[in-house]
Amino acid sequence: MENRNRVDESHLIHASQLDLPPRLLLGPGPSNVPPRVLQALAMNEIGHLDPKFIELMNEIQELLRYVWQTDNRFTIPVSGTGSASMEATLANSVEPGDVVLIGVNGYFGERLCDMASRYGADVRRIEKPWGEVFAPEEIGDALKAHRPAILGLVHGETSTGAMQPMEGIGKLCREFGTLLLLDTVTSLGGAPVFLDRWHVDIAYSGSQKCLSCPPGIAPFTMGERALEKLNERKTKVASWYLDMSMVGKYWGKERTYHHTAPINMNYGLREALRIVAEEGLEERWERHKSNANLLYEGLEELGIGCHVPKEHRLPSLTTALVPDGVDSKAVSGYLLRKFNIEIAAGLGQLAGKVWRIGLMGYNSRPENVNLLLSALKQALETVG
């Protein structure tokens, strides 16, 4: 008689001890993590409603306000990667039929359009070639033409290395009763970001770029105008997990259980934010700018240009133009095999045309720039 309780071992494998190469992550993210953050991740776990954890939650919220330069009371880390926080901005601010205007000048503008459409938005687009930025006049004309409920812009476009100037755009949005939604995934902690000064209503970021924390927890913030729209919704937020009317009760005074927070990821984020605060924002921004300039100079010496004009370059992410006749994948593959250095290929319209080089947070250091330039020179001579 067949034993129905017999274990099926067809999927049983004897996995070896985890052994990973010591990569230097100079792509678009994740970036390498400081030892202090790794140590924080390994600390003893406590309960997600433990008084000590609630104290830690308060500290994270205050440090996020500092890094974002905002007084927003609703400022939290979402339990998920940056894409979860990105989706949370739209899930909570968009109601079916809302006109949502998206600035599309790269891959992540396209993603905002896709996400907004899934929540029933009437998506309108203002477009520029990948690598260019929008002038305030163009934004103003589009606001006048479309009268959107929400304008979504990408501050630091990871696919192109362009940084969108923000002065005056928030004021334009106020004139038209429009909420301003901003992607700061690749700029937060690496370039000047002033949410309140720019009149940004709702924003998101990621942990794994200039904050130098592993992916899995993602900053999110809503100003009073965005909260008012959330509180006056006629329909429920379509995502239960990302519904900030409920999640906010866990991060607010009520401390009402919603889901089990990723406790150790919060430890890591707190330590990463503490490192940012110890360095100081202005000093950190200047460090990223200085190392980016060092990279630009070195690339020029190798005969490599940059896709984005210097005045609009994101200091944490550079799109270096692949020289004519060079196999971009062969070069990046050589860097990985011979030097354990990761850089990334171009996305979408820039596939095969650029390398994306990240100098983010802990990795934005002169010695990393010099090592990369030396390795890149050898790669071009060997396989280029």
From TrEMBL:
Signal peptide: none annotated. It comes from the Bacteria. Residues 26-364 form the Aminotransferase class V domain. This is Alanine--glyoxylate aminotransferase family protein. It comes from Desulfomonile tiedjei. The modification N6-(pyridoxal phosphate)lysine is found at K209. The keyword Transcription does not apply. One of its GO terms (molecular function) is L-serine-pyruvate transaminase activity. Belongs to the class-V pyridoxal-phosphate-dependent aminotransferase family. Substrate binds at R356. Transmembrane segments: none annotated. GO terms for biological process: glycine biosynthetic process, by transamination of glyoxylate. Pfam families: Aminotran_5. Its cofactor is pyridoxal 5'-phosphate. Keywords: Aminotransferase, Pyridoxal phosphate, Transferase.
